[in-house]
């Protein structure tokens, strides 16, 4: 199981493992500890490797793609196909920065989805 906390708030992203029917490895549950209940759920066809939270975004990493969601309504903002990433490695800026990537077009699309294109605060590292 994997738990990601939004800063020091009561909001958590929970991802399960294959032995738990309540927390399967292909779902991300957004849990409010203050309300003691799940307030959102994201489902995928593949196992979720990493989840990162930011005040305005949820970033979910699968083996070959990254999904970026709006935190407030769980609307899908972008899906970025990546190379094979079996460890689910990703870095995001906790401000209005970008997501690291291997191609310029994917990074630019992720920057747009994260709201940092056009000279926003933060930086993106491109690995060529």
Short description:
The chain is mainly beta and 128 residues long.
User: Given the structure, what is the number of helices?
Assistant: 1
Structural class call reads mainly beta
In what order do the strands lie side by side in the largest sheet?
1-2-3-4
Choose one word for the global shape.
globular
Sheet bearing the most strands, described?
Answer: 4 strands, antiparallel
Q: Tell me the strand percentage band.
A: 25-35%
What is the oligomeric state here? single chain
Task: Sketch the topology as an H/E string, one letter per element.
Answer: EEEEEEEEH
Spans with pLDDT under 50 lasting ≥5 residues? 101-105, 116-128
Query: Kindly state the mean pLDDT as a whole number?
Result: 78
* Helix proportion: under 10%
The count of β-strands is 8
User: Distance between termini?
Assistant: 33 Å
- Rg from Cα: 14 Å
Walk me through what this model shows.
The protein is mostly beta strands and 128 residues long. It contains 1 helix and 8 strands; from the N terminus they run ββββββββα. It has one helix at residues 104-114; strands at residues 2-5, 11-15, 27-32, 37-43, 50-53, 57-61, 65-70, 76-81. The chain has a 4-stranded antiparallel beta sheet, with no helix packed on it. Strands 5-6-7-8 form a 4-stranded antiparallel beta sheet, with helices on one face. The longest helix has 11 residues, at 104-114. The relative contact order is 0.13. Residues 101-105 and 116-128 have low confidence and may be disordered.
């Amino acid at each position: 199981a994997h738990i990601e906390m939004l800063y020091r708030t009561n909001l958590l992203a929970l991802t399960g493992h294959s032995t738990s029917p309540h927390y399967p490895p292909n779902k991300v549950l957004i849990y409010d500890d203050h309300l003691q209940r799940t307030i959102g759920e994201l489902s995928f066809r593949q196992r979720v490797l990493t989840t990162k939270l930011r005040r305005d975004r949820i970033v979910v990493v699968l083996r070959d793609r990254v999904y970026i969601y709006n935190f407030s309504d769980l609307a899908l903002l972008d899906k970025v196909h990546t190379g094979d990433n079996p460890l689910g490695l990703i870095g995001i800026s906790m401000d209005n920065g970008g997501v690291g990537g291997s191609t310029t077009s994917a990074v630019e699309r992720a920057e747009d989805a994260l709201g940092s294109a056009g000279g926003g605060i933060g930086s993106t590292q491109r690995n060529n």
